[in-house]
């Protein structure tokens, strides 16, 4: 990951909440404990883009999880809008045309493009149904290499993919990992979760954490504990 990253900068809190009012209340509770937020499709379609702008105005880093995939002209123009907003990360699907367009449009801004290789809801049978001839692990590896070669700033990966992908892409690509569960936290729908320390030791640059913080009785204490665990693993 480029630049000096404090343990706090490596924890990205997923604001998977249905309204700006709830997101605002959560960020107020979290205060200085959190420096980096992920805003995804649910909140985006409920006024989340303006809220993301406000967070950036308050000095927070923002990861817009918008998973772009369209013709290059549209991806270019949409990425330019996100770059102007001052976001730090934007996701796109790891198709070469899409990555090329997004990376070119982000040049000269502080925005890094994160490629989504194969969504973790897909298994080999789902890929075959969608017309692909590769197994998930082979398509993930192929797209990870393409993302690096096309200048993507990073990849979204599950914790179990970190060990295989880091050697393929080298140190210059940010590996960002959801599926994080501190010891004792409920798994929810995450089937292959890793602890913050395990994910950092396996090579993650940043962790995306949602419910273990946003549904904790004391979100701020939960966030502080995860930052401390990251610090201990670095
Ligand atoms: O609440 P939780 O910590 O499970 O939230 C994880 C976040 O990361 C959610 O925003 C979820 O959509 C996202 N994510 C994930 N697994 C993936 C890709 C994205 O959990 N494979």
Automatic annotation (TrEMBL):
InterPro entries: Aldolase_TIM, OMPdecase, OMPdecase_AS, OMPdecase_bac, OMPdeCOase_dom, RibuloseP-bd_barrel. Substrate binds at residues 16, 38, 65-74, 120, 181, 190, 210-211. The keyword Lyase applies. Residues 10-226 form the Orotidine 5'-phosphate decarboxylase domain. Gene3D superfamilies: Aldolase class I. SUPFAM superfamilies: Ribulose-phoshate binding barrel. One of its GO terms (molecular function) is orotidine-5'-phosphate decarboxylase activity. It catalyses: orotidine 5'-phosphate + H(+) = UMP + CO2. Keywords: Decarboxylase, Lyase, Pyrimidine biosynthesis. The active site is at residues 65, 67, 70. Pfam families: OMPdecase (PF00215). GO terms for biological process: 'de novo' pyrimidine nucleobase biosynthetic process; 'de novo' UMP biosynthetic process. The keyword Lyase applies. It comes from the Bacteria. SMART domains: OMPdecase. Pathway: Pyrimidine metabolism; UMP biosynthesis via de novo pathway; UMP from orotate: step 2/2. Homodimer. Belongs to the OMP decarboxylase family. Type 1 subfamily. Catalyzes the decarboxylation of orotidine 5'-monophosphate (OMP) to uridine 5'-monophosphate (UMP). This is Orotidine 5'-phosphate decarboxylase. It comes from Alsobacter sp. KACC 23698. The lineage of its organism: Bacteria, Pseudomonadati, Pseudomonadota, Alphaproteobacteria, Hyphomicrobiales.
């Amino acid at each position: 990951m480029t630049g000096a990253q404090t343990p706090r900068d490596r924890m990205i809190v997923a604001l998977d909440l249905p309204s700006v009012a709830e997101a605002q209340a959560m960020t107020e509770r979290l205060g200085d404990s959190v420096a980096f937020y992920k805003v995804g499709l649910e909140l985006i379609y409920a006024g989340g883009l303006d809220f993301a702008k406000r967070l950036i105005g308050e000095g927070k880093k923002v990861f817009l999880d918008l998973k772009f995939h369209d013709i290059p002209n549209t991806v270019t123009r949409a990425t330019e809008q996100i770059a102007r907003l001052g976001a730090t990360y934007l996701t796109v699907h790891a198709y070469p045309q899409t990555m090329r367009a997004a990376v070119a449009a982000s040049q000269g801004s502080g925005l890094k493009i994160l490629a989504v290789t194969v969504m973790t809801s897909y298994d080999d049978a789902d890929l075959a149904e969608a017309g692909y001839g590769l197994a998930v692990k082979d398509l993930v590896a192929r797209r990870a290499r393409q993302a690096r070669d096309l200048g993507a700033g990073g990849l979204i990966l599950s914790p179990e993919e970190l060990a295989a992908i880091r050697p393929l892409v080298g140190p210059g690509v940010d590996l960002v990992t959801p599926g994080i569960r501190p010891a004792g936290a409920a798994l929810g729908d995450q089937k292959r979760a890793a602890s913050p320390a395990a994910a950092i030791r396996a090579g993650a640059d940043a962790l995306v954490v949602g419910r273990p913080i946003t549904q904790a009785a004391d979100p701020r204490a939960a966030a502080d504990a995860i930052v401390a665990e990251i610090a201990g693993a670095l």
